[in-house]
Write a structure and sequence with these properties.
Number of strands: 7
Mean pLDDT: 91
CATH class of the largest domain: Mainly Beta
Largest sheet: 5 strands, mixed, barrel
CATH topology of the largest domain: OB fold (Dihydrolipoamide Acetyltransferase, E2P)
Strand content: 35-45%
Shape: elongated
Radius of gyration: 21 Å
Strand order of the largest sheet: 3-4-5-7-6
Low-confidence stretches: none
Length: 179
Amino acid sequence: GVHIRDVLDAVAAHHPGLIEKFGGHAMAAGLTLRADRLEAFQVAFDQEVRRWLTPEDARGVIHSDGELAGDELSLVSARAVREAGPWGQAFPEPLFDGRFGVRAVRVLGERHLKLKVRALIGSEWGPECEAIAFRHFDHDDAPVVRAADRIELAYRLDVNRYNGSERLQLVVEHLARED
């Protein structure tokens, strides 16, 4: 990843006087600059970030903990993952991947995509479960998904509690249609 404070330090070094002051650390930073320097700062910051990005960063590689077997795609597994936390920056929650058949699609609140999916493990159909892609429609390139589509997901296991019952829910981090 990119260390934000170091990027600001490089911008300040390559463009003296552009930034009034700045501070921060790898994950967050703040700065002060004059309003008439905002556009120049945006250009300089963008150029510096591009210097720091690796080819892997630019491709948007997803690091997964792998595909779950059919019996692992369960409420029991979701509870176990939840209990194994707390999760954080240096200890991220597991991210799994897999292929699924879409059984049903519903849009929630114009931004979110709710799916019923069935796992495709090897050449066998596995369990059916619910999946939700929060803020799916916030992206211009969000894929259109229909019932009967086959998709690839990168997801986190979650326990969905509603009306006194618990169900497995996949929280989708990335979704791609298989063509």
